[in-house]
Amino acid sequence: MIILKLGGSALTIKDADKPTIDDVNLDRIATEVASYNQDMIIVHGAGSFGHIHARKYAIGDRILGDDDKSNKTMGLCLTQASVQLLNYKVISKLHEKNIPAVGIKPSTFIVNKDKRIDECDTNLIRKYLDDGFVPVLYGDAVLDKNDEIRYSILSGDQIITYLAKKLNTDRVILSSDVDGIYTDNPKTNPDAKLIDIVTKDTPLTTTSNDNQADVTGGMAGKIRELLELAEYGIESQIINAEKEGNIKLAVSGRQVKGTIIK
Ligand code: ADP
Asked: Could you give the count of Cα atoms lying within 13 Å of 204 in the half-sphere of its Cβ?
């Protein structure tokens, strides 16, 4: 079984001021996904469908009083509805390509504690997989058992780590809008170099040179999750979903340029 993450940065226009799909990318990626040849779970990021609401309502920050509680309660509803809409658009596109994609809403069966998954029953996902479906989960906003925050963001990257450990996973592929992990953010530093293999011994600091990576933003969170997975014995790879053909090669079990985390 493979777990494929479709990065929110490839599926949506991440810098948009309102939730916006990247229609061209979504159509092409869905066509490529249709080449899969084994059991597969897809997890997609939230991109502009998640972070605009989550940031506005500061989901995951400490609740400061009754007004803030009401505000964040509404914010949780809006964030969930927005990412569910993205999920609907993603599975609809997968249906067009004849992929039996079943959308599964994480916030209906996952509860966090201190921003990490605490409750999650994977039986339903297993049953869909066994019956030949492709379960499609996504980054969501969920209840949190920490009374000071009550709600938190559950990233698609965290869902992957959790599911990969719980279910019998052979390969974990994360696609984003860059080729992998670089020595610095490749979007802002043209001299950044791609790192082929990252292990727990790779220095990930704030001074970048050939052997050290200055990892920030979403990529830093991904590395934390994927190193945890590596510690558990599951290797993963980060690849670029924006390069035509990469997803197709990856889901059909072939080599793709990217960074391996082991
Ligand atoms: P996604 O939405 O695809 O899951 P994110 O946007 O959260 O991914 O994270 C990917 C982004 O991380 C890249 O677009 C890149 O700009 C940024 N980034 C920061 N530092 C690095 C680095 N050292 N290597 C690669 N990407 C990096």
From this structure: 20
Terminal Cα distance for the chain, rounded: 18
Read off the pLDDT of residues 151-193 as tens digits, 9 standing for 90 and up: 999 999 999 999 999 998 999 999 999 999 999 999 999 999 9
Residue that is written with structure tokens 């080599």 in the block? 255
Tokens of 81: 């509805």
Best residue among 154, 175, 177 to mutate for probing ligand 1's pocket (most ligand atoms within 8 Å of CB) is 177
Return the CATH class of domain 2-261.
alpha beta
**How is residue 48 written in tokens?**
């502009």
- What is the best residue among 20, 219, 247 to mutate for testing ligand 1's pocket, by most ligand atoms within 8 Å of CB? 219
- Answer yes or no: pTM beyond 0.85: yes
Helices 156-166 & 217-231 angle (0-180, nearest 10): 10
Q: Within its chain, how far is the Cα of 219 from the centroid?
A: 11
| pLDDT score, position 91 | 98
Q: What is the pLDDT of residues 194-246, one digit of tens each?
A: 999 999 998 876 555 555 677 777 899 899 999 999 999 999 999 999 999 99
Domain positions in the chain: 2-261
Residues with a CB atom less than 6 Å from ligand 1: 7-10, 45, 47, 176-178, 181-182, 184-187, 213-219
Q: Output the CA–CA distances (angstroms, integers) from residue 219 to 82, 225, 259, in the order listed.
A: 23, 10, 12
**7 pLDDT exceeds 90?**
yes
Question: If you take atom 21 of ligand 1, which residue's CA is the nearest one?
Answer: 185
Q: Return the DSSP state at 211.
A: T
